[in-house]
Amino acid sequence: MVLKVFFPSCCSSADSGILIGRWISEQNSAVILAVVHFPFIPVQVKQYLGELQRVTKVSVSVLGSWSNSKQEKEESLSEFLEDLGTIFCHEPWIQISKEGDSKFWSCSILQKHSKNPQEEEIILVYYDQRKVMLSHLHPPLDTAGQRAEDASKLSAIFDTVARSQVLFMTDRYNEGPIKLTHWQSDGVEASIIVELLKQASVPACMLLTLLLSLLSGICRSRVLKFWPLSFLWSKLSTCEQLGHRLQHLQLISSNKKAQNQNQLMRKANIFVSLLIDVALGILLMSWLYRKNRIGHLADTLIPVADHVAEELQDLLQWLMGAPAGLKMNRALDQVLGRFFLYHIHLWISYIHLLSPFIEMILWYVGLSACLGLTVALCILSDIIALLTFHIYCFYVYGARLYCLKIYGLSSLWRLFRGKKWNVLRQRVDSCSYDLDQLFIGTLLFTILLFLLPTTALYYLVFTLLRLLVVVVQGLIHLLVDLIDSLPLYSLILRLCRSYRLAAGVKFRVLEQQDGKPLRLLMQINPLSYGGVVQTYRLPTYSCYPRDSWASLCKKLFLGELIYPWKHKGDKQN
User: Among 73, 234, 319, 465, which lies 20 to 30 A Cα-Cα from 519?
Assistant: First the structure.
């Protein structure tokens, strides 16, 4: 049989002593957790291991002896280490020794109480105890009563190391009778700054939770459910983003402990995303208020709006003539052109009426950047929607008129074929029409058919303008979604400490010689960057747009409206 010994690489330079760990009989494997140095009292070691088993629920015992011949020169040491097997009574008794400065290791198995001792092939596997402990490849620690002891999986090794966390809290500087060597034997890994932040975060989180509960109570009040406020809250992307960030703040400030690694990583990703978002927003705010850039922006906004209005007027004048040599219905063309020109005149008057207050509005809007860059981008998207509201109105008018004619032509076409649409059964049924109905239907079909090119041209032009605005707003929302959903903490962790985001393990051969145990190095395989983004990506409130290309083309052909806003039913959980 093959006996596998998992030995921590941090103990390779430890002083001579005994090996403590867990024996997994189903796998015929030994997981070494630490080395107990000389001198020690066996009774105290047994008491310590019994208390450790009670706390960790892991059957930790003395598995063998460890000899470092570079530091120990007594000839009787090897005999003494063999005699320890009779005191601790473990079968098999593992003896590992390091031969001075040589890279070779000797590992032997003693079976004193076995009647038929068998020669076993030994595989010595080195593992980084710190990386295995922090890799989270083990089952969740909160399912200790429900976990199944599956001996055929490597997760038992990781589970053993993870559940022995109490053992690693004892370092060599503790005043106790037992001296250990493990991955934290030089001192428990911690940070004074982190500990101080943990202590200060408790009252800060309590205060933040109180403020957020009050704010969320105001947001859920009945006042905001009335029609004007509820309509604005559902349509303005700024309100949606503020609500989204409010949920994030409530999540990271809650005193509820994360149940698993995914919830912990989600909280960390949200916290880092908020910090970076606010930092970028403050940088944007400092740039806007430096050198009077707000005033320059306000002075530029009115001429740009006038220029856009003039271009639209020129476009309508072109459509009211003979656009591209096309023969239009002159009466309908003049009515539609004058109707849209009047709307442009109203829009110019509205812009000039607001011109004295634009700088003050932009000054207060710029202060919102301290809430984050995403809030500032959402405000920019809403400003674009307000400044292009006349284009949206033109698009709605053209789409409704075009849609009316398309559905009218399709209904009259069914009349010619002796069919009609059954509203109750939602299908097309046969129907007999008299002569008067066919005559009226022919007249209406002819009128709608000859007026369709003029209507379709206006609809096409304003649809292209509307799509241009939608694309600009879509790019802004994509940037907002990127900041909201990108797991920045996980990506930084993947770059600096890749073993914290483990996808599996791999083994590398270190030594393979006859008469020597096979030495392997167990390494952690990290997740790829794409896997990190896919696994820990944060949910966002918007998806812009959701329609496929086929659905979008169908809507454009039938004249259905393209809404730039996300509806509440589209929210991702």
Answer: 73
